[in-house]
Amino acid sequence: MIFLSQKVLRKIPGNWTFVIVTDRQELDRQIYKNFANAGAVNEPHVQATGGDHLKQLLREDHRYVFTLIQKFRTDRGETYPKLSDRSDIIVMTDEAHRTQYDIFARNMRDALPNAAFIGFTGTPLIVGEEKTRQVFGSYVSIYNFKQSVDDHATVPLYYENRIPELQLTNEDLNEDMERLLEEAELASNVLRLYKGILPDANANEFTQIRAVIAVVAEKIRSLTPEPDISAVMDDVEELLDKSVAAESYVIHAPQEGDKDRYIDLSKIDFDALRGQFQKARKRTEAEKLRTAIERTLSHLIRMNRSRMNFQEKFQQLIDEYNAGAINVEVFFNRLVALAQELTEEEKRGISENLTEEELAIFDLLTKPDLKLTGKETNQVKKVAEELLATLKRERLVLDWRKRQQSRAQVFITIEDILDRVLPPKFTQAIYHQRCESIYQHVFDSYFGEGQSVYAAAV
Question: Cα(396)–Cα(93) distance, rounded to whole angstroms?
Fold first, then answer.
């Protein structure tokens, strides 16, 4: 304010008056002292002590006038008088984001109809405060927080997002939730209380007030198409935040009738989901997606153990979120990305021209880092197809896992086919490791007589 007023006086000829307005006594004193200490004010008694003194100062010719906006007050029904027609008055308002949109501000403009107005504020004009820009116009100059830090006028400000790992802390959650909903129901149905005491004669004393409430309620409903239940939702969310815990996920063995519990991520419209996430409860939507991924991932890993890298990525994401390293928006976006990866993984067998069972053996033979040519890749695919067909046709008999001889025959079959058909790039060390991995996979996934994890998933 001091710099602006002094620059105007130096650069633009005229008999300028600057009216410095704020809304708190201590700010008014502080600003006046700043001007006085800088040598800008050299006349006494230019700080308005009351409404009448302010009117006197504005009718007179002063370089500076300091006042609270509240001193532009009037009695009820009174119009504030015009005090000056001058166009060389500049009103400089401190804390311009507040107290500039009501009757005092209107009175100030009635008093000085030709004055220019400029606002100063240390509060950004965020959403909900567009009125400031309407009153004073667009920004003339911005001195942001980074500039202040660079100038060493302000120390850096750091934000550490801390999201504690959820724990169950409230055994009475159901009762507390019921109480909240009952209170909300009562609050939205006050008029029912009147009907509850009818036909008691004592109800007559409430008739008029009931009618008034009914009229007001009807008017409110006509002006409010959708009821605002945000307060109730806030209470519910607060209760859930205090009460609900997310336990560690567990990959369960498939059970009979589990087919419907797996969610096809390829059918999720992620753009629509993002839109819903933006307007809904963010934590709730993120938790829904997390649960869907957990179920899908459990199924995929059950079918193919080489997909454990997806589980590790999923677990790392959850750990980072629980540790507060990422916020809910980042968590949600990374969940969406992971869900899309899983969708592509579910389709990979089709692109490789392999069944889910053949793909599992193919992955065990080629992952994690075996580099093959196109010809060698096709050769390994044929190995997977032949090995699976031979085992299912000849070796995976009823209770084969319980008999040592049957287990040995399965292992020997795996060794023979891999030794005979695999390309030369599979060294002896790789060959033996792949034989062990595939045998363990067959033992875990195939139960004999056509029973397997793949049959349970169909």
Answer: 87
| 232 vs 391: CA distance, rounded Å | 61
Q: What is the pLDDT of residues 304-325, one digit of tens each?
A: 988 999 999 999 999 888 887 8
CA distance 45 to 390: 105
Strand partners, 21: 67, 93
How is the chain split among helix, strand and coil, in percent rounded to 5? Answer: 60, 5, 35
Residues 195 and 273 in one domain: no
For residue 343, the enclosing domain spans 259-351
* 119 touches 135 (CB < 8 A): yes
Confidence of residue 103 (pLDDT cuts 50, 70, 90): confident
Q: Are 360 and 442 in contact (CB under 8 A)?
A: no
> What gap in Å lies between CA 169 and CA 328, rounded to an integer?
22
Question: Contact 421/434 with Cβ under 8 angstroms?
Answer: no
Q: Give how many domains the chain has, as a whole number.
A: 4
SS3 137: coil
